[in-house]
Design brief:
By secondary structure, the chain is of the alpha+beta class. The protein has helices at residues 3-54, 125-176, 190-238, 244-271, 284-294, 296-301, 320-337, 392-402, and strands at residues 81-86, 94-99, 106-113, 117-124, 282-283, 306-310, 314-316, 342-351, 356-364, 406-411, 416-420, 425-426, 434-437.
């Protein structure tokens, strides 16, 4: 659900609740108000009638002869009935009815006149109820009009708030992707404009830092290549030595220097590229085959095996150099701190909120594993439980996350690290599943 929709629904819910809370008591008040007006009108009529009847009494308080009703009849409401009880010399409670013979569902008001006289006025309730319905309808129309007006205000307000928030969020997303173009737009909302000002400052600061870091990385890589070139020249001289063992070691060292130089060049090139998700998928097993080949000899010297298994046709959108360096760190970690055989396996797994398919590269050994005290901090830069620099695993995680993947410690004892890459692409090349000891 979009932010604008959430804001709009929240405001409409509050507005509807307010309308209901205020509208129901107001409608009840209007209903009662009409009833009070009707009864007040009946009492006023009775007061005027009583004045006309009392005026016809003599000094003894009795009405002699017939009661004159000419001034009383007009005061009886249409469809109503008036019952008069008054004293005469012949009857102390003479009764006279004026109006209709019967009233359905009447509204009744009474008035006492002295000790012997009284008035009872009945009026049909239909007219009062009609007025009550009209009053409640008027209240409902006012409530509906206010609700419509409030909804209009809510729509404008939601747009007024959500559009600037969406613009600021989009700008932050562009900044995260490396788009450092300035944006002078402001929205007239103090808090959001303040966020925009901070983003402007952050853009300048981040761009400056990245520029300095790129320059530093370029200088460092240049110095590394220069030093490696010097080392290779020295090793090249050793390749002319008379001892064949020395020549063999020199050639192996030169091969390592060449691989390191190529790795530096590829990492520098990839650092200027876009995310791995924008790259063509690469064969994961083929990328890892070079890592396993490189680490074959150290494991053999330790009396251990390094095994690579997986589908050679399985592809993933990942930067090859980053993947190789990260897995090399994990293999080195297994060699230094693990035990037994080390297995590097590539397979498809399903995970995430949508159960999407991912490529998982798992590096496992048969050693004692990771202690409970070390496990929560194993990827923290500078933290080490074995006297090392504490940079390797942090670097491996950073390389994997740079391609949108993630690196996790899946099992502590024995240790199992898992690298989760993007959505796989299976390309069958007739190679089957690789399972080769190294």
């Amino acid at each position: 659900m979009s932010m604008r929709r959430r804001i709009l629904l929240s405001m409409l819910a509050a507005l509807t609740l307010t309308t209901v809370v205020l509208g129901i008591p107001l409608a009840f008040t209007a209903w009662q108000w009409v009833a009070d007006i009707t009864r007040s009108d009946l009492r006023e009529r009775l007061d005027r009638m009583s004045v006309e009847i009392v005026a016809q009494e003599h000094e003894d308080g009795l009405v002699h002869g017939q009661l004159d009703l000419r001034s009383v009849r007009p005061l009886v409401p249409a469809g109503g009935r008036l019952t008069i009880v008054y004293p005469t010399p012949q009857d102390a409670a003479q009764r006279v009815d004026v109006g209709t013979s019967g009233v359905d569902s009447p509204v009744v008001e009474s008035l006492t006149m002295g000790t012997s006289g009284s008035l009872r006025l009945e009026a049909p309730a239909s007219s009062m109820q009609s007025m009550q319905r009209q009053a409640v309808g008027a209240v409902a129309l006012v409530a509906l009009a206010s609700l419509i007006a409030g909804a209009g205000v809510a729509v404008v307000t939601a747009r007024r708030v959500s559009d600037p928030l969406r613009d600021v969020a989009a700008r932050a997303a562009r900044l995260a992707k490396g788009d450092f173009r300035p944006d002078s737009r402001r929205h007239g909302i103090t808090e959001l404009d303040r966020v925009s000002d901070v983003l402007d400052s952050a853009t300048v600061e981040i761009a400056g830092r990245l520029q300095r870091e790129h320059a530093l990385v370029a200088d460092v890589s240049h110095q590394l290549r220069s030093r490696l070139t010097a080392v290779r020249l020295r090793l090249d001289e050793l390749s002319a030595h008379a001892d064949r063992a020395v020549v063999h070691e020199a050639e192996e060292a030169m091969a390592q220097v060449d691989r390191l130089t190529d790795a530096i060049d590829e990492l520098m090139r990839d650092s200027r590229d876009q995310d791995a998700a924008d790259h063509e998928p690469v064969p994961v097993v083929e990328q890892l085959r070079a890592v396993v080949t490189e680490w074959r000899h150290p494991f053999a010297e330790a009396g251990r095996r390094l095994v690579l298994s997986g589908d050679p046709g399985l592809l993933a959108p990942v930067t090859g150099s980053r993947l190789r360096e990260a897995v090399a760190v994990l293999v080195d970690n297994a060699l230094m701190h693990g035990g037994g055989d080390c297995t590097v396996s590539v397979r498809t797994v399903y995970g995430g909120p949508d159960r999407e398919s991912l490529v998982a590269v798992e590096i496992a050994d048969e050693g004692e594993g990771v202690s409970d005290e070390l496990a929560p901090h194993i990827f923290d830069r500078g933290f080490s439980g074995a006297g090392s620099t504490g940079v390797g695993l942090a670097l491996a995680r950073a390389l994997i996350e740079a391609d949108g993947g993630r690196l996790e410690l899946q099992r502590r004892r024995p240790a199992l690290f898992a690298v989760f890459l993007g959505k796989p692409t299976a390309v069958r090349s007739g190679g089957g599943v690789v399972g080769e000891p190294r």
